[in-house]
């Protein structure tokens, strides 16, 4: 078995997690692969050399499982690196909430034991694919959480004309618009009042950011629909965020968003459900009046 390990090098606590992974799999028939930046960080922080480790220097790698050590942002970066390789990802959380990276540091050995004994489940998550009609290149055009169209300055709104399957639907006058997957429904979309969807839902959410019209609400559409966006701005440009990776585009750049041609595999602990995550992360069902 080959396991690829990625991590947030800005969180020193990950050194103990990497050491735990190295020690656990060191006596097993497992080949460990460390992302190049993570390898250099760990060697410098731990003041040691690591033998029998493969180093990942590009996105051209193959593995049976990927481990992401960090928060949800690190998990999203790992998902981008994994792409369409069909590699399931386990997220170990060193951040705050951790909807994607939901294995806590104190449970890391339990999670590694589950991987070693194949005692886990795999959830498949849809991604969204973004294409610019003028050929603008995006390094990672497929997103697990969301595509955000945002204004650049702090004063004026932007206009976002939205068509669904070629039919004009609305012209949003707002600070932005979030197009989210069910996985991303607990991320930025949730913060602006978007609905929560179970990961298995076959839908896409359109959530406006600070809409100028109070009667404009989030919209849920089937994930088979194609979304076309035409943006107008006083600055003649706007910002796009693809799972947190930002880029400034000219307002003449039109976008088309659709479901990506592949799904991402996420490793979950046995008997763990989406609602368990809501209970632990959002305190659903917790009565604080006592």
Topology overview:
Elements (H helix, E strand, L loop, with lengths): L1 E6 L6 H12 L5 E5 H11 L6 E4 L8 E6 L1 H11 L6 E5 L9 E2 L3 H9 L3 E13 L9 E2 L2 E5 L7 E7 L2 E8 L1 E5 L7 H4 L11 E7 L9 E4 L4 E7 L3 E6 L2 E6 L4 E15 L4 H8 L9
Parallel strand pairs: 1-2, 1-4, 2-3, 4-5, 5-6
Antiparallel strand pairs: 7-8, 7-18, 9-12, 9-16, 10-11, 10-15, 12-13, 13-14, 15-18, 16-17
Helix pairs in contact: 1-4
Q: Briefly, what is this?
A:
The chain has helices at residues 14-25, 36-46, 72-82, 108-116, 188-191, 274-281, and strands at 2-7, 31-35, 53-56, 65-70, 89-93, 103-104, 120-132, 142-143, 146-150, 158-164, 167-174, 176-180, 203-209, 219-222, 227-233, 237-242, 245-250, 255-269.
What characteristics describe this protein?
290 residues; alpha/beta; Rossmann fold; Tumour Suppressor Smad4; 2 domains; 6-stranded parallel β-sheet; 6-stranded antiparallel β-sheet; 18 strands
CATH-defined superfamily of the largest domain: Probable inorganic polyphosphate/atp-NAD kinase, domain 2
Let me know the number of strands.
18
Low-pLDDT residue intervals, each spanning 5 or more residues: none
Report the order of strands and helices: EHEHEEHEEHEEEEEEHEEEEEEH
* Structural class computed from helices and strand pairing: alpha/beta
Indicate how many domains the architecture comprises: 2
Q: What's the helix count? A: 6
Intertermini distance = 49 Å
Biggest beta sheet attributes: 6 strands, parallel
CATH architecture of the largest domain: Sandwich
Strands in their spatial order, largest beta sheet: 3-2-1-4-5-6
Report the β-strand fraction as a percent range: 35-45%
3D shape: globular
Radius of gyration: 20 Å
Work out the helicity level. 10-25%
